[in-house]
Design goal:
- The protein has two helices and 21 strands.
- It starts with a strand and ends with a strand.
Length: about 250
């Protein structure tokens, strides 16, 4: 599959480097299989691929993660393979975490070794990961509306928060807003029709503030160094849109 790398990576690249779309090169890349998510660290770009069957919930073993350098050159097409439908990723020290339908994995970025596999009971559609602290991950489940808390000390899983699907949709993209001690959630309704919202969840008291009330198919989210928020949406007719919000508190 050919993808426009600019479209796939702009959100993550903007977060990491503080640059904007006008400064990014538009590069056509081939060889991916239903690319779903992009994660950028200091040196490399990781792309999760759902697989040739393009089934986001299919346990078919054809999903994989590709590794690229900052010039968009493929370093390792199958950095991690034999996954099902991998989606959101996050990095903590030398561990690259990825969610795959109902399972959380971690791989060593230095040697690709699988370091962790946690099956999350009752999970339907795990979608993204946010690093809360050095020992804790938050993981969204679009299918149930649950935000799971993963304790990396003992690999325990607990329900951190449950979104009302009828009101907000299920959590899709996640990003920590450190300045406001909050979790930004871009939501998407699992029925594919009703739409979701963009909200901010206070991590201390779990109060919710709606940032974008208009229902939509919201997907990725990132918080810039200045506090601005980038949100991607499928947009009308799947044309794809990235919104930038400047919030004054």
């Amino acid at each position: 599959m050919k993808i426009k790398f600019f479209i796939s990576a702009v959100l993550a690249a903007s977060l990491t480097h503080g640059i904007f779309a006008s400064e990014l090169k538009n590069v056509d890349l081939e060889g991916f299989a239903s690319p779903e998510s992009v994660f950028v660290d200091e040196d490399f770009i990781y792309v999760s691929n759902i697989g040739t069957k393009a089934d986001p919930l299919g346990k078919d073993g054809d999903g994989f993660i590709s590794k690229l350098d900052k010039n968009a050159k493929v370093v390792d097409k199958s950095f991690a393979s034999k996954l099902n439908a991998p989606k959101g990723m996050a990095r903590l020290d030398n561990r690259l975490f990825v969610v795959d339908i109902d399972t959380l994995y971690a791989f060593d970025v230095r040697n690709k070794k699988e370091l962790l596999k946690i099956n999350i009971n009752g999970a339907v559609f795990l979608n993204d990961i946010a690093v809360l602290d050095a020992n804790t991950l938050l993981v969204s489940d679009t299918g149930t509306g649950i935000i799971h808390r993963i304790n990396l000390g003992d690999n325990s899983v607990n329900e951190f928060y449950r979104l009302d699907l009828s009101q907000f949709g299920g959590g899709n993209g996640l990003a920590i807003d450190t300045k406001n001690n909050a979790l930004i959630i871009a939501s998407y309704h699992p029925d594919g029709v009703s739409g979701g919202k963009v909200i901010r969840l206070n991590l201390a008291n779990k109060n919710i503030e709606t940032l974008i009330d208009t229902k939509g198919a919201y997907d990725g989210v990132a918080v810039l160094e200045n506090g601005d928020i980038l949100v991607s949406s499928w947009g009308e007719n799947l044309q794809g849109v990235i919104y930038r919000m400047s919030l004054i508190l």
